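re: ur question from yesterday

yeah so i grabbed the chain u mentioned. its 182 aa long if i counted rite. heres the sequnce exactly as i have it in my notes:
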Amino acid sequence: MDFFCYHRDRLGSMALRSDLVEEHWAYMDRYAEQMIARGPTLAADGSPTGSVHILSLPDPAAARTFAFDEPNYQAGAYRDVMLRRWWNMLGRTMWEFTGGRTGGNRYLVLGLGPEQSAGPVLPQRQDDLIAYGPLLSDDGVTWVGTAALVRATGPDEARAVLSADRYAEVEVHNWVFGGRPA
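ran it thru and got these structure tokens back, copy pasting raw so excuse formatting
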């Protein structure tokens, strides 16, 4: 089972996150084999605004454990958590993205609250898709949105990966490949 987890930072939590960096990395190391994609979202000035993790776990209980036992969450660094079942429509991890880690900008694009009951549609052009799939209800049946990690020249191009008329809201966040620094 795949899950999408997006921890959004609490305003002013950077010092707390800095204090917990090694605890965060040690925690994430325990899930390295299950990761499909990961990385921080960033403000225009490059400061972190959140943390995205897409991973395969055995069940919803394991996903809740992952999301809510995370050291930054436990310490109060995050203001909220989006945790949803997710379906990996590309069938690969971010490390298998042929575009690599450099060249172009990277974005998290979230389409929330679909206005139609039809499920997600994989874009025809997939060269710049790093990860792509529907956000699903807890039982994995109902489509409630779409999450995509994309390479694009700017936020408008990133937003265009989702058909805006199919969503109540589309969010675009600067995002970079994550993982423990070498």
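noticed a couple things. The chain has a mean pLDDT of 92. also The longest strand covers residues 105-114.
anyway ttyl
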